[in-house]
Amino acid sequence: MATDRPARNTVVIVDHPFGDVEAEREVATRHGYELHVHQCASESEVIEAVRDSKVALVNQAPMTRQAIAAMASGGTIVRYGVGYDNVDVSAAVEHGVAVANVPDYGSGTVADHAATLLLTMLRKVPEYDDAVRTRGWIAQSEVGRVRDFTVATIGMLGFGRIGRALHTRLAPFGFEIIVHDPAADEEQLRDLGIGLVSFSELLERSNAISLHLPLTTDTHHIIDERSLRLMAPDAVLVNTARGPLVDSAALAQALNSGTLGGAALDVFESEPLPSDSPLRTAPRLLLTPHTAFYSDQSLTRLQELAADEVGRALRAEPLRCRVA
């Protein structure tokens, strides 16, 4: 049930990764609002930061039921980025708080990073680099099979904005590309030369799999021990989507046992990656610190699009990317 809490004359940034927040400050000031900037990590910090606020912009901080209840009725939450699993959407609906995301600020940037990881792993660059540094030199064949890209199959689990952008980047290399996505248009995929396959077929046929799914109850640990067993022993897995799509313990075990060729992860079940995570010592694993979205240009786009959404909220206009 929505609460009847009058709004303070404030727009709140709960947490952010940016060098400055001038785009957000400009739009708040233009509409007669103060901008309050925080770097909250805990629920209690968020509750105090957003109390009676009209609009809250959030990056990674937890927008829990209690935090949302502290906001003014009729307020708006704008999530910096695509995923919004750190926002309790059902609580927002109950309290009459709108939720919007920014799904299109960095699709190309994430696709660039996914392509970089995928090509690097298929060419076994980390293994060659490690061998030269630690052993001086090796025979090329010592790292196992290295296929021409023209005879390799790439499986995409999900084919939304980022999946489509990744396909555009990979197509010139000559890969066979297959997709599993229940929402995909089979005829459209056929026109692109892409096969639409079942989940099990994608796992079994792919030499590399790239994940491009939202995190839901259905997709949580979609890559688990069973899924990894279906993959070829020299296949590689790339995740630039959401960390909990992959069962970290099962992945570490597959890499340690040699039943999976390799993996590259930009996102993790817990971030920062815990110091005792088995992923830190797993072989043939390339790690980046949730940076696929990051470039000078993508961050600028993200802030500008988020600020535009704040302006719509303050003018009581329909939100461009409302999710609840």
Automatic annotation (TrEMBL):
Domain D-isomer specific 2-hydroxyacid dehydrogenase catalytic: 22-323
InterPro entries for the chain: CtBP, D-iso_2-hydroxyacid_DH_PdxB, D-isomer_2_OHA_DH_cat_dom, D-isomer_DH_CS, D-isomer_DH_NAD-bd, NAD(P)-bd_dom_sf
Domain of life: Bacteria
One GO molecular-function entry: transcription corepressor activity
Gene3D superfamilies, per database record: NAD(P)-binding Rossmann-like Domain
UniProt key word Oxidoreductase: yes
Xref: Pfam families: 2-Hacid_dh, 2-Hacid_dh_C
Domain D-isomer specific 2-hydroxyacid dehydrogenase NAD-binding: residue ranges: 116-292
Keywords tagged on the record: NAD, Oxidoreductase
Statement: the UniProt record of this protein carries the keyword Transmembrane: no
PANTHER family membership: D-ISOMER SPECIFIC 2-HYDROXYACID DEHYDROGENASE CATALYTIC DOMAIN-CONTAINING PROTEIN-RELATED, D-ISOMER SPECIFIC 2-HYDROXYACID DEHYDROGENASE FAMILY PROTEIN (AFU_ORTHOLOGUE AFUA_1G13630)
Family: Belongs to the D-isomer specific 2-hydroxyacid dehydrogenase family.
Protein name, per record: C-terminal binding protein
Organism annotation: Gordonia jinghuaiqii
